[in-house]
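Structure in, sequence out. Go:
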């Protein structure tokens, strides 16, 4: 039995979004760079997550290279996207930290 959404669904899970947003922490990225990243997202999933993150104001277009035939768009994190990454980074630290027992 498969857990989670069916393959090819239009579903964006929260952990996937956090992983996707982490790709943009240091530098703006384009679709080609995302496709060849360590996440191994297929192009449908990349575009689905891009649409969702842009609509939710987590990503925005940084710049478009004009000198090429098909100019790539580079996307960057918005402040809201940075806040979301920070929020979950901090919450994972507290949930994964060993519990202290009082004697």
């Amino acid at each position: 039995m498969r857990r989670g959404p069916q393959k090819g669904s239009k579903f964006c899970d929260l952990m996937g979004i956090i992983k996707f947003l982490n790709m943009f922490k240091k530098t703006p990225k384009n679709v080609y760079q995302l496709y060849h990243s360590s996440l191994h997202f297929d192009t449908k999933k990349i575009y689905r997550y891009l649409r969702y993150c842009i609509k939710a104001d987590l990503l925005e277009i940084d710049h478009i290279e004009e000198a090429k035939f098909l100019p790539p768009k580079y996307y960057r994190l918005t402040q809201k996207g940075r806040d979301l990454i920070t929020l979950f980074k901090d919450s994972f630290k507290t949930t994964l930290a060993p519990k202290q027992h009082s004697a």
